[in-house]
Design a protein that fits this description.
This protein is an all-alpha fold. The chain has a domain of 30 residues. Helix content is 80%, strand content 0%. 0% of the residues are buried. This is CcoQ/FixQ family Cbb3-type cytochrome c oxidase assembly chaperone. Keywords: Membrane, Transmembrane, Transmembrane helix. It comes from Roseibacillus persicicus.
Amino acid sequence: MFHRIIHENWVAIVPIAAFALTFTVFIGVLVRAVVMKKDKREHLASLPLDDNRN
């Protein structure tokens, strides 16, 4: 009986942890994109259209 209660609490924690991890990664990428220098942003934005392959 007690094992089932602990198991149900564990199942409730997994989606919260997954959401927290996803949210943290999203915020990290967002902060990195906002802080990035303008010339680096323009370089990365033009990569798909760049004909010069190094």
